[in-house]
Design brief:
241 residues, mainly beta, Type 1 dockerin domain, 2 domains, eight-stranded mixed sheet
Length: 241
C-alpha cells in the first residue's frame, strides 16, 4: 500500500482517528523475537517486531513507525507476514515515505509502518507484549552473526516511534538487537552461541536461562522452558555446516 509523497503518519492519523478513550500514557518499547537464531543459506529468516507497555497496564497505540537496519550482504528483505499479529492493523507494511527510505528495500534499511483501525486502538500489554508483524528475510551467505536493529532517526521525517494519539508520542526503549547466524546448510535452531553446531556450550546457555529469561528460547514463545530443552537435546551433537 503506497502513500503519496509528503503524507506522513501523523497527518494521516490526524484526519483518520477520533478516539474517546482515557489514555494512560505509559511508554511502549519495541523489541525483537527471537533475539538469537540460526539459519542456513537460502532459508527464510523470520523476526517478530514486538511492542510492550512499560507500565503495569495495557497501553492504547494508534501507530508505530519502525526504521529497521540490517546488512544487505547477508539478508535480503522479502516483506512482512501479518498473520501472527496480535491485533488486526488497518495497514502494516513498508509504505512509501517523504524521505524515500523505502524507495530501495534492498539497501539495508526500511521504514515499517503500522496504523490502527480508526477509533479502535491496539491495546499493547506489558511484556511479553504483542506481535506487531513478522519481518521476513532471505539468508544470502554464511556468517557467524549478522544483526537486525532499530534506527532512531533517518532523513528529515523518518523516526522510530510509537503514538498513542495523533501527535502523542510514547516511544520507550528501541535498543533491542536480533542476532542471526547463517550456516552454509540449513541451520540448527538450537545453536544458541551461533558457532554452527549444537554442543555443551549451547546447553549451558539454555540451562542458565531456564525459566528465567529468553536467552535460551528456541521455539520463539518468549520463555526458556522444557520445550526448548527437548529441541536442543534432539539436535545435540549436530554440525550445522
Amino acid at each position: 500500500m503506497l502513500l503519496s509523497k509528503g503524507v506522513t503518519v501523523v497527518s494521516l492519523l490526524m484526519s483518520a482517528f477520533c478516539l474517546n478513550v482515557e489514555v494512560q500514557a505509559e511508554t511502549v518499547s519495541l523489541s525483537f523475537r527471537p533475539i538469537h537464531q540460526t539459519s542456513g543459506v537460502g532459508a527464510l529468516v523470520e523476526v517478530d517486531i514486538i511492542a510492550s507497555s512499560d507500565g503495569m497496564v495495557d497501553q492504547p497505540v494508534v501507530a508505530i513507525d519502525a526504521i529497521l537496519q540490517w546488512d544487505p550482504d547477508y539478508l535480503e528483505l522479502i516483506g512482512v507476514d501479518n498473520s501472527n499479529a496480535d491485533y488486526n492493523w488497518f495497514v502494516a507494511d513498508f509504505l512509501n515515505d517523504p524521505d524515500g527510505i523505502n524507495d530501495d528495500l534492498t539497501d539495508g534499511d526500511a521504514l515499517f509502518t503500522a496504523l490502527a483501525q480508526a477509533g479502535n486502538p491496539a491495546m499493547v500489554p506489558p511484556p511479553p507484549g504483542h506481535i506487531i508483524t513478522t519481518v521476513q528475510f532471505l539468508a544470502l551467505q554464511p556468517t557467524m552473526v549478522t544483526t537486525l536493529s532499530y534506527v532512531e532517526t533517518m532523513g528529515t521525517y523518518g523516526r522510530t516511534r510509537v503514538l498513542y494519539e495523533p501527535g502523542g508520542e510514547i516511544t520507550g526503549d528501541i535498543s533491542a538487537v536480533a542476532e542471526i547466524a547463517i550456516c552454509p546448510l540449513p541451520g540448527c535452531s538450537s545453536d544458541l552461541d551461533h558457532d554452527c553446531d549444537v554442543d555443551q556450550s549451547d546447553l549451558g546457555i539454555l540451562l542458565s536461562a531456564y525459566l528465567d529469561n529468553d536467552s535460551g528460547d528456541i521455539n520463539g514463545d518468549g520463555i526458556t522452558d522444557q520445550v526448548d530443552l527437548g529441541i536442543l537435546l534432539s539436535e545435540y551433537g549436530t554440525i550445522c555446516f
